[in-house]
Structures are given as structure tokens and as C-alpha cells.
Amino acid sequence: MSVNVDLTTVWAFVIAFAVMMYVVMDGFDLGIGILFPAFAPGEERDQAMNAIAPVWDGNETWLVLGGGGLMAAFPLAYAIILPATYPLIVAMLLGLVFRGVAFEFRWRDPGHRAMWDFAFTAGSVIAAMAQGMILGALLQGIEVAGRAYSGGWLDWLTPYSVLTGIGVVAGYALLGATFLAIKVGGKAEDHAYRLARITAFATLALMAAVSLATPFLVGQYWQRWFTMPSFLFASQVPLLVVIIAFFLLRGIARRRTYAPFVLSLALFLLGMIGLGVSMWPHVIPQSVTIWDAAAPERSQVFMLVGVAIIMPMILAYTGWAYWVFRGKVDDAGYH
Amino acid sequence: MIAGDEALLLARIQFAFTISFHFIFPAFSIGLASYLAVLEGLWLKTGKPLYLDLFKYWLKVFAIAFAMGVVSGIVMSYQFGTNWSVFSDKAGPVIGPLMAYEVLTAFFLEAGFLGVMLFGMNKVGKKLHFAATLMVALGTAVSAFWILSVNSWMQTPVGYEIGANGQFLPGPSWWAIVFNPSFPYRLVHTVIAAYLTTALVVGGVGAWHLLKDKGNAHARKMFSMAMWMAALVAPVQIFAGDLHGINTLEHQPAKVMAMEGHFDSHPDGAPLYLFGIPDQANQRLDYAIGIPRLSSLILKHDLDAPLAGLDTVPREDQPPVAIVFWSFRIMVGIGLAMLGLGLWSLVARMRGRLYDWPWLHRAALVMAPSGFVAVIAGWITTEVGRQPFTVYGLLRTADSVSPLTVPAVAASLIAFVVVYFAVFGVGVWYILRIMSSPPHAGERGVKRTERGPIRSAGITPGPTQNPTAREGGETLIDGDGVAERDGPTGDER
User: Fold this and answer.
1) How many helices (H) and strands (E) does chain B have?
2) Pairing relationship of beta strands B284-291 and A148-149 according to DSSP bridges
3) Chain B residues within 8 A of A146 when measuring between CB atoms
4) CB A132 within 8 A of CB A172
5) Residue B424 pLDDT > 50, yes or no?
6) What confidence tens digit (pLDDT) does each residue in A297-312 have?
7) Which of A105, A323, A120, A184 is CA-nearest to residue B446?
8) Do A65 and B103 touch (CB under 8 A)?
9) How far apart are CA B481 and CA B197, in angstroms?
């Protein structure tokens, strides 16, 4: 597991960062969509929607950076993974269409608000499920011949990918519930804590199931997790998960404001690290390494200059936007 | 990896369908974001509540159009990989970084400040809010810059090297790639098109309300602003289009031959065909009606200049002539109609009848959606005219497609068609509903609360529930009276 710090490695971390940002930020947006039917129509739902109305668009942009960045930095991986998971990508995109327009449409048309609330939830569930299944499809391996995908159009559909799909749905729901616990008040807040408890248990159970199933998929994964010396590093990940799970459940029970959300983020970060342990240095397990897929140095350098200068600015004004809309959602709505 | 003809055709239809739908929204929101910035700037400068009312009126439209642009745009950024994977692999090292810059410098900017623009007026104050509006407007323009650079590179590829693995690799100069030969022309022509499209929509909405009430001060203002835009910018656009055409003649002559319907070469001056039925199989233009030598005059600025025809281009390298020929004529026809409308408005202005000439208002109303038609027609002209290549002259469309089977692409195409027509159809209807209610004093903008509709539909409008009406300075009764008359206004919040 040698790590040469070259541009390709840097880019692998930039893409991983973008994906991670997307997963946590749109994760709680999608999670709120997933949990939406659990909230009472009227004030509870309005509060839940208003908690993310000013920021969802920025959150979703990380998905475009993840996809666009993958094309730019690892074009071969982009060209293989997307056709391999074609129906999942299309389902995700269409799910995001419904989710995205529902933010506007439900306010435009009170007569059909129930319908757009359903579209909000259905779109969120489909997008989350599809993202989880794409992860599963990637981990279980993709058939490659030459520079192209060579499998069938439904190869991704396995019990394992269904499991990862459900896992991501549960995880996003946990993020959504713990985020809402910060942002909403009154009955909706009580509701959010109850949902946080349920989704925390579900997420932990599914994380355990995925973690147990993954090493059996591919020999490389087994070696990483269960042979020396990588075992010494890798074993820290599940240990930390157990510790964080304990504090997460305690934080929810004690109705801490920020701890449950922050600890849920930590769970996702550990999941991402676990993913890195299994896959490194492949971008498509077993067949394509990050160096095989990497764009030439000129492309890498050109973009890295942009990332180095612009990314801090993006983080700054994104942070400012969150700051503007900080605190509990004003139940009179944003003006 | 060569896919079957059917799979290729389906992938092309899907791309054409999704890009055409998508393009409608940015074509509108690029112009509208700038219009909103102008309105808010005028409000800050003059303090006149009328500008704020117009700002809030169009902000409601912008919120919907922008959301539809975002969700249909994400589809585009993934479709390169899903359906055109070979193209993505080969061209990714060159165009990928430009698209990454679009995300970094444009998408984040507009999305990051959109929340403050839509909901933040009372939280950040007027000046910071104006700054947010400017950032959103800037973001839409920067986005156009990068994506049109990408498209232009595909039309006029320069500054690349071919790698051992068949990829296009960037040469030593990114400047050469970004500012490729067709880019400046395409950028100017497309961005002006977006501004004109928005101006015609704004003018059409103003005209509609002037037809119903020629005394509506808000409608007068928006109509006047839009007609200035049409009168001043339509001629500029025609000039820019001419330059773009001359640039295309230099770099993609086959496209211009298809636009002109020139199957035959004309050594002593080529005619401008006004009408004709292209028959590509027999390589001739039937029923042609043309003006002798005018094409040479327009393209070469010389009546006798020779122009080569498609007889100099191998059949397998020709674009589909009929589509390009007609879409080009539709675009030009609409452009001339826009010019006519702009001139008419100048005449009306000079005679003091700008707000009192129902036929002018009817014409503006009919022209309201024409910008979208022109933009799509122009896009079809340039994109179909580039065929049969994705990277012009270097990579064929047939060699760019993903190794997908017919059922996969057919299923996704059906799904896109059904969902787009349903979702965006409803969205456009919501926009039309907003536009159908007249702009008035005390516009509320985008608000999000359950209380609003109940109050505004009810009996007791109170200033505390309606702070913007106070800022508007005019009567609450006017605002709520309208809200009661037109159901849709009730859900503005």
C-alpha cells in the first residue's frame, strides 16, 4: 500500500473530497426528503423544507464537481463506470429532477402540494438508493475490456448492491434527521430526535452488514482488512465506528443539538476511509488504477491551480450562506 | 467499440432532446439574472419601489426557471459519460478541465448565492443582497463562457496533441484551447441571444398586461425596458451572427454549405437561397428560389467571390442538409422579426404611443416565446451542422458512443421524454401563471410559509405579515385585492 504523493494521488483525494462533500451535504437534503412523509403536513413539513431551501442547490453542485471532476481528472474511469451503471445513473438523475423541482413547485401549487411532497420523497429515495447501488456496483467489480465497459446493462443488480443501496438510504436519513434536530423547533424537533434514533440503529446495522459482506467480494479486500500489516491500520476503522456509535446514540438520547449531526458526519467519513482502504489504488476495483485512468499532467496542473485558488473561496461563501440562515428555521419562513 | 445504428440513433435523439430542453432554461436565466441585477441596482440607485416590485415579480419566475435549469443541467454533465463514453475518454483530458472550471467558477457561485438572493433580503440587508444578485448573474455568464468554450473546441479543435492511447491531450497552451477560433464568435452570439430571449419574454408579459390595462405603471416600465433591448441589441445580434457565419465558413465550410443549401460550387458568385427543398440523396436543391450572388456578398463581401459547394465534400462527411438548411432559416427569420419589433417600438416611442398601440403589444406578445425558438434553431444549426463528427474532422459521432444496447438507451430515452414533458411542462405552466397576474405595488417575491396564503386569501392583511408591502410603500389593499382576484397570487409565499 505504497503512497507516492504525485499529482494523480492529489487528484484522487480532490475527487474523494468532492464526493465526500456531496455525500454529507446533499446527504442531509436527500435524508430530509426520505423522512418527509414522517412529518405532519403543514408546519412540520414546511419547517423541514425551509431548513434546506436556501442551500440545497449549492449542496447538489458537489455532485457536478464529483462527476465533472472525474471526467477531467480520470476520464477513463468516468468512461467506464457511467455506462456500467447506466440505469442507476439515469434513475439518480431523474430522481434528482423530481426532488429539485419539488422545492419550488410545492409552494406554487397548494392544490397539488401533496403530490409534490410525494415527488420530493420519491425523488430523494430513488436518488439515494441509486447512489448506494452505484457504490455497491463499483465495489463488487466492473467488467472491462480494453478502454471500455464490456458487461451487460443489468450487471450491477446484485443482493450486495441492493444492500449498499439501502445502507445509503438509511445513512442519508440519519443525516437528515440529525440536521433537522438542529434546524427545526417544536413538535418537528421532537420528531426529528425520534427519527434520528431509529435511523441511527438502521444505519449502524446496515454499515455492519456491508462491512461484513465486502471482504468476501474480492481477494484484495480480504487481504487489506485481515492480513498484516494493513490490518493494524484498517482495524482502527471499525473500532472508531463502535466508539462513535456509542456517543451518537447517547447524544441523540440526551438531545444534544450539534453532536448527533457531527457524529453522523464522522460515521460517513469513516465509511469513506473504509472504502479507501478496500479500493486503493484502484478507481475501478481489480482492473483500473488511478494512474491508468489519470488525465495527463497538463490537465492535472491546469485544474489544480483552479482548485487551489477557487476552492477556499467556495468554502468561504458557502459557509457564509449557511451563516446567514443559521439557527432554527423562522416559522414565518424566509423573507 | 461500435454500437449498432439503432443504439447510436437513440443516443443521439436522447442527447438532442435533453440538451434542447435544458438549453431553454439557461437561455432564459442568463438574461433574467442580469435583468434582475439591473432592476435591483435601479431600485438601490433611485429608491423607487416600482423597481423593487418588478424585481420581486421576476424573482418568482427566476426561482422556478433556475431550478429547472439546474436539474436538467446535471443530466447533461453525466450524459457525456453515460452515452458518449468513448468521446469522454478521448476528449476528457482537453474538455474535462474546462468543464471543471465551469463548476468551480460558475455553478458554485450561482448556487452559493442563490439562497441569499431568493430568501435573504431581510437577513443581510440591501447592499449585500445586491451583491448576491450580482454574483448569481455573474455565475450564469461565467457558466456560458466555459461551456461554450467546450462546445467551440469540439467545433474548431486546436491546441491538442494525440496520445499513444488515442486520447486528445492538451498541448502546451491552454489559452489556445479555451480561446479556440470559433469561441469568441459563438460566445457573443449565444449570450446576446440569451439576453434577447429574456427581453422578448419580459416585453411580451409587459405587453399582455398593457393590453388589459394600459395604465399599469409596472407593465409600462418592463415593456419599455424590453423594447429598448430589442431595438438596440437585435441589430447587434444580426451583425454578430454575420461575423459568426464568416468564421464558420473559414473553419467549417461544410456547415455553411448546408446552411446555404449550396450543393453545387459557384465559381462566379453564389446565390442566396430563400427557399428550397434539399434533396441530399441526389445532391440538389429542389424548387430553389434565390437571389443571385447575394450569398457571396454576405459571406465574402464580394458579389463575384467563388463559393465551393457540397460537391467538394465527400458524401460521408456531409451534415444532414435539410435540418441545417431549415433551422438556419427559422433562426434568421426570427432574428429579422425581432429587429422589426425593435424598430416598430422606436417609431411608437417617437410618436408617444409606446403604451397605447394595441397592435404593437399584440406583436410583442406573439414574439414573447420567439427567442426560445430562435435559440434552439440556432443551436440545431451549429450542432447538426457539425455532424458527422463530435470533434470536428477528427472524431466521428459513430465512434464516440457508449457500448450500450438498444433496450438500455430506449428505456432511458422514454423515461427522459415522459419525465421532462411532465415536470417541465408543469413548471412552465407555473411560470405562465405567475406571468398572467399583473405586477403590482407590494410584490412579495419568493416566500416560504404556510401563513401567507391563508392571510392573503383571507380578510385581514396586516403590515406585520407583509413587510415587503411596507417597503413597496404603496397600498396594501391594492396588493391583496389582486391576490384575491387571481388565485395564483395567493401562493406567492
Assistant:
1) 18, 6
2) unpaired
3) 1
4) no
5) yes
6) 888 899 999 999 999 9
7) A105
8) yes
9) 32
Distance set, CA B46 to CA B30, B38, B49, B79 (Å): 25, 12, 9, 46
The residue among A164, A196, A165, A271 whose CA lies nearest residue A35 is A196
C-alpha to C-alpha distance for B375 and B373, rounded to whole angstroms = 6
Whether the predicted pLDDT of B474 surpasses 80: no
Find out whether A14 and A161 touch, Cβ atoms under 8 Å. no
Contact B99 A78 (CB under 8 A): no
With beta carbons under 8 A apart, name residues in chain B contacting A53: 115, 118-119, 448
Residues of B in Cβ contact (< 8 Å) with A326 = none
Partner-chain residue, chosen from A80, A110, A335, that has the shortest CB–CB distance to B447 = A335
Residues 6+ positions from B454 with CB-CB distance below 8 Å = none
Model confidence pLDDT, tens digit, residues A185-226: 888 888 999 999 999 999 999 988 988 888 888 777 877 778
Chain A contact set for B163 (CB, 8 A)? 296
Contact between B439 and B219 under an 8 Å Cβ cutoff? The reply is: yes
Which stretch of DSSP H or E encloses residue A73? Answer: helix A56-73
Burial class from Cβ neighbours inside 10 Å (0-12, 13-18, 19+) for residue A296 reads middle
Phi then psi dihedrals of residue B170, to 5 deg: -65, 140
Q: Is residue A181 within 8 angstroms of chain B, CB to CB?
A: no
The confidence score (pLDDT) of residue B481 equals 32
Count chain A–chain B contacts defined by CB atoms under 8 A: 275
Most B CBs within 10 Å, among A22, A299, A301, to test the B interface:
A299
* pTM metric for this prediction: 0.87
**pLDDT at position B240:** 92
According to the 3-state scheme, what is the secondary structure of B377-418? HHHHHHHHCCCCEEECCCEEHHHCCCCCCHHHHHHHHHHHHH
Q: List the grid coordinates of B450.
A: 404556510
Residues 6+ apart with CB under 8 A from B270: B260, B262, B293, B295, B296, B299, B305, B306, B307, B309
B406 lies within 8 A of chain A by CB? no
Are B170 and A50 in contact (CB < 8 Å)?
no
pLDDT band at A331 (very low <50, low <70, confident <90, very high): low
